[in-house]
Structure formats: structure tokens, C-alpha cells
């Protein structure tokens, strides 16, 4: 029998590879983006009680009402945007499912989708499976600012979707209000949509986060994707959600109902109750992670690594040009095997990495002791 792959270029993700190598060599794992500290005990107890008290059958396909109402309140509180919990909010099994559903719902064969490189590795396979064609705007170090003239030059009658991500993985940069306005000016007269990946929305280190939720015009033709895994240190729960106008939501739900149908009921119940009882929980994330960022940066300040600015997310980019001429994949393998620290090579997030770029990504969603131990090893280079 002959099997023809629909994704012939796709193998095991770099995150799985590096975590496996870290385990194999006993290295400190700052590669994959998961916390190594516990979540809020009250939230964990709510999940336990939800399981014990019988909330274990299918949730409504769109999400439990208590959670959708809590999300509606969250958006009103943080973004001063009024959305409808019944017709504009859909709970999904993680942000990854939400992004896949959104791309599949909006992109047809031959449609063009614009990405900003470096881009999260999920985007392109989902676009390819939908029959779409990727076009890319390259963001350049150290500030990774979008070039809006280049973006405008890529727009054609076939452009159907632009996929944006702020705060940005892997660079740790954040868009500004003028970026959203430039985007709107470029697309407002075109028949196209926006998918805004905002899973790190509450992890930013500036006065106010920049979100499509705050741009009324963009919001009316956008899907905004968020993640409770990021917001509550529970990546294994895989609970995300999408906010979109009713016409877009209707198409998204057609995909969602046949992919996962519904997300784990007791986890939805626990998060919904937690959001309603602890409305300030999300606002605590930025100072929490800023302190961890500062611990890592201070510990590496005297090293030969050059630290790029980090405005959001829990990722820090390091330039190792003064240390090695190895490409970043080889350098990360060296770090795991010889230094005892696992990192992610930034080149894997590009279609065509910039020539000579020497950048790696560290995750600082770790205990301070873990960060200091890793920094001590890296500072010896």
C-alpha cells in the first residue's frame, strides 16, 4: 500500500525534540514553553470538585455557559469591548485547535495567507491542509517591527487572511497601536480577514497591551484566539477560546463540532468559577512574569550572550554571535549535550532564516532556582 503524506515536510516538532534531548541528557529544560511550578491551588481544587460532583459528561459544543459568561465579563473588564457570550465566544480544546479551526473555516484552495516570520510552527501546516498559499513578511532583529509597505506589496485579490501574533512568540516583542491601525488601513477595502493569536495577552511588560479587541474596525472581521493554559499555568488542560463576530463564529463552530465537539467539562467549570470569583487573576500575570524575566536577564547580564528586548510572553531571545559560529540548531544541540541547558533555535520559526542570524529562545516560565541554575551554566561560555 502507498501512503501519500499531506504534510511531507513536517516531522516531529522542535519542541518535542529538544524536550526529549533534555530528558536524555539530564539538561535544564528552558526550551518548551511550560511552567515547572504549580498553578493556583484554589483552581485545582475547583477542578477536583467539578469531577467529584458529576460534571463529567459532554459540555455544550460552544462551551459551558458559566465559562462563556466569564469570558464575556473578562473582555469587557480588560478591553472595554462588549461581546455576546452565546453567539461570539467558542471554547476550544486549546488555542491550537482554535487556530486550526479558524484557518480551515476561512481559507479555501488557492487563497493566500500572509504570515509574519518568525511564526509559530502550527500556522503553515494548517494553511497547507486548507489548500492555502503562505506569503511572508520577515521581521528583523533586534526590534522585529512589521514593515507595512512590504505587507501592502503582498496583498492581492487572492489574499484571504492575515495571521498576526502579539505578544509575539518567539521574539517576545509586542505590537503597538499604530501597527493595528496600519494593518486596518491596508486591508479595510479588501475582502479578507484577520486571525489574531493573542495567547500571551496578559503577559506583557508595557503600560497597556495591544489587542484587536481594542480596535473596533478590525474586531469586526477578526478571530481573536486566547489560551487559559498560558493565563493559569496549566498548559496540559488545553482550554482555549475564540472571540469573533457571529457570522465568522458560525463557520468556526462547524469545524469545532467535528474536531473535538467539546472541551473537558470539569476543567471548563473550574475555570469559569475561578474567573468569576477571582476577577483580578489575569492582571497578576504581567508582574509575575516580569519578575522572572528580570531574574534571568540579571543572571546573564555579564555573560557573552547579548540579550534582546523582551516586551511580552515568557520567552527571552539570546544572541550568541560572540560565542560560536555554529548555526542555531547545532548550537542548541551543543548546549543540551555539553552545557546542560535546552533552548530552541529561532531559525525553525522562519521559512528562510536570515543569513548569519545567531539567536536562541529561552523559556523563563520556571522557578527562580531553575532559571539561576541554567544561567550559571550558560554564563560559563
Strand sequence of the main sheet, in spatial order? 2-8-7-6-5-3-4
Report how far apart the termini are.
Answer: 51 Å
Shape: globular
Structural class: alpha/beta
* Unreliable residue stretches: none
Number of strands: 13
Average pLDDT confidence is: 96
- Which percent bin holds the helix content? 25-40%
Strand portion = 5-15%
Q: Give the H and E element order.
A: HEHHEHEHEHEHEHEHEHHHEEHEEEH
Largest pleated sheet: 7 strands, mixed
Radius of gyration: 21 Å
What does this structure look like?
- Helices cover 40% and strands 15% of the residues.
- The chain is an alpha/beta fold and 381 residues long.
Which terms summarize this structure?
381 residues, seven-stranded mixed sheet, four-stranded antiparallel sheet, globular
Show the helix and strand layout:
Layout: H1 14-25, E1 28-29, H2 41-52, H3 65-79, E2 89-92, H4 94-106, E3 112-117, H5 123-129, E4 133-138, H6 148-154, E5 159-165, H7 177-187, E6 193-197, H8 216-219, E7 222-227, H9 228-231, E8 240-243, H10 246-259, H11 265-277, H12 285-300, E9 306-307, E10 315-319, H13 328-339, E11 341-342, E12 344-345, E13 359-363, H14 368-378
Parallel strand pairs: 1-11, 3-4, 3-5, 5-6, 6-7
Antiparallel strand pairs: 2-8, 7-8, 9-10, 10-13, 12-13
Helix pairs in contact: 1-13, 2-11, 3-11, 4-5, 4-10, 12-14
Amino acid at each position: 500500500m502507498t501512503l501519500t503524506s499531506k504534510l511531507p515536510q513536517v516531522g516531529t516538532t522542535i519542541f518535542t525534540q529538544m524536550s526529549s534531548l533534555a530528558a536524555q541528557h539530564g539538561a535544564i529544560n528552558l526550551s518548551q514553553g511550560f511552567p515547572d511550578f504549580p498553578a493556583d491551588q484554589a483552581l485545582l481544587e475547583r477542578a477536583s470538585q467539578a469531577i467529584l460532583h458529576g460534571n463529567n459528561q459532554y459540555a455544550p459544543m460552544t462551551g459551558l455557559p458559566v465559562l462563556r459568561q466569564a469570558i464575556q465579563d473578562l473582555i469587557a473588564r480588560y478591553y472595554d469591548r462588549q461581546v455576546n457570550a452565546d453567539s461570539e465566544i467558542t471554547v476550544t480544546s486549546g488555542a491550537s485547535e482554535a487556530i486550526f479551526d479558524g484557518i480551515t473555516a476561512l481559507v479555501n484552495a488557492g487563497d493566500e495567507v500572509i504570515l509574519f516570520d518568525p511564526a509559530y510552527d502550527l500556522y503553515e501546516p494548517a494553511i497547507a491542509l486548507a489548500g492555502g498559499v503562505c506569503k511572508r513578511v520577515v521581521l528583523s532583529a533586534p526590534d522585529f517591527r512589521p514593515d507595512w509597505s512590504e505587507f501592502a506589496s503582498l496583498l492581492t485579490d487572492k489574499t484571504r487572511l492575515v495571521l498576526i501574533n502579539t505578544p509575539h512568540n518567539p521574539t517576545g516583542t509586542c505590537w503597538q497601536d499604530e501597527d493595528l491601525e496600519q494593518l486596518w488601513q491596508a486591508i479595510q477595502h479588501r475582502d479578507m480577514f484577520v486571525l489574531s493569536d493573542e495567547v500571551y495577552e496578559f503577559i506583557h511588560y508595557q503600560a497597556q497591551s495591544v489587542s484587536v479587541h481594542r480596535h473596533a474596525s478590525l474586531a469586526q472581521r477578526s478571530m481573536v484566539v486566547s489560551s487559559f493554559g498560558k493565563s493559569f499555568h496549566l498548559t496540559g488542560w488545553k482550554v482555549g477560546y475564540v472571540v469573533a463576530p457571529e457570522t465568522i463564529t458560525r463557520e468556526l463552530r462547524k469545524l469545532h463540532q467535528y474536531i473535538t465537539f467539546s472541551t473537558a467539562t470539569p476543567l471548563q467549570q473550574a475555570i469559569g468559577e475561578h474567573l468569576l470569583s477571582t476577577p483580578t487573576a489575569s492582571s497578576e500575570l504581567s508582574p509575575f512574569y516580569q519578575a522572572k524575566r528580570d531574574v534571568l536577564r540579571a543572571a546573564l547580564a555579564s555573560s557573552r550572550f547579548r540579550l534582546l528586548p523582551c516586551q511580552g510572553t515568557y520567552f527571552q531571545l539570546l544572541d550568541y554571535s560572540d560565542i560560536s559560529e555554529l548555526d542555531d540548531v547545532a548550537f542548541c544541540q551543543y548546549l543540551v549535550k555539553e552545557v546542560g541547558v535546552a533552548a530552541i533555535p529561532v531559525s525553525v520559526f522562519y521559512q528562510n532564516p536570515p543569513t548569519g542570524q545567531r539567536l536562541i529562545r529561552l523559556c523563563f516560565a520556571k522557578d527562580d532556582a531553575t532559571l539561576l541554575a541554567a544561567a550559571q551554566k550558560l554564563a560559563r561560555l
